Amino acid sequence: RYRTGCPDYLELIIPRAKASNVPVAPPYFPRAFLELVRRDDPAAAPHTAADGEKNPFRGKKILVLSGKADTVVPWTASERFVGELDVGEAEGGVKEVIVEEGVGHTCSPAMVKEAVRFLWEHALTK
Description:
The protein is 37% helix and 11% strand. By secondary structure, it is of the alpha+beta class. The protein has a two-stranded parallel ribbon with strand order 1-2. Helix 3 (76-84) links the parallel strand 1 (61-67) and strand 2.
């Protein structure tokens, strides 16, 4: 259900729509599409809940990599969600956030190294 990319699509698209004087409403954004986003976007999940039964991220190991200079999916569109995200450290959850200065919409060599390290530490050696 969850994917890579921006975890809060509306936080990404609403400022763009406003800047272009496009309403975030039909016909530009079909009602069914908005309902889908509001239902299935990671930001729609109870990601701040302390209850592991409700919060699908509790106990998960999550690495967030972003370029600070990304203009396609700016860090500001994900920052609130990621900051609020409760992975339940006491339950084994891990959340690491790396926002690399001077990097745009790309996976830098430093990000690759961080991803390898994260996988080694949290998936391959357990």
